[in-house]
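Q: Protein A?
A:
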Amino acid sequence: MTEVRELSADEDALWRALGRVVHVLPRLLDEDMTKATGLSMTEYAVLHVLAEAPEHRLRMTELASATALSASRMTRVVDGLARYGLVTKEKPPGDARGSAAVLTGEGLRRQREAAPRHTASARRRVLDHVPPEDLAAAVRVLQRLADHTSGS
């Protein structure tokens, strides 16, 4: 087995802080969103990605990838949103096996209505605590981590 290098004090501090953020922040953002809009953060993320997609439609596999959800989790979320009339599922032409999620007019309205509340939560919970002079470096580090973890 390869020898593992001990963490430095700064590395340990970063690792512990990251652990707290990873465990607490999703719950706080979800609570903010649910209280303000009735949508979970996952539901909002799906509506947001579809709102930005061409013709407000994406194959389920692309939608799962864009939101970092498993295919089975995406199916459950989209089925739930469909029950509320916010999305529909359609068979893409020429593809008997796949399906696509399509944002409805009501889904687009709900996403647009929720967007300012999402932004307010993101600012209050994260962005207001990152000094402007540190923002570019934070983006680089987090993007590198996101790229590395999405390829795992």
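Q: Protein B?
A:
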Amino acid sequence: MEALYLLIPLSVVVVFIALWVYFTASDSGQFDDLVGPGLRVLQDDDTSPPEAAAPAATQRE
């Protein structure tokens, strides 16, 4: 019975800490775009942009 006097307040504190972490992450934009990164993996971007290719070509010469 004495253990409940410790475990109940401790569990309440843990719940409030978990809620604080969740709402802090939510406010910082952690969960804004859950679909975008998964779709970016599927896009076929094998070609490099012309701006990035031009300096590399001039450095090789």
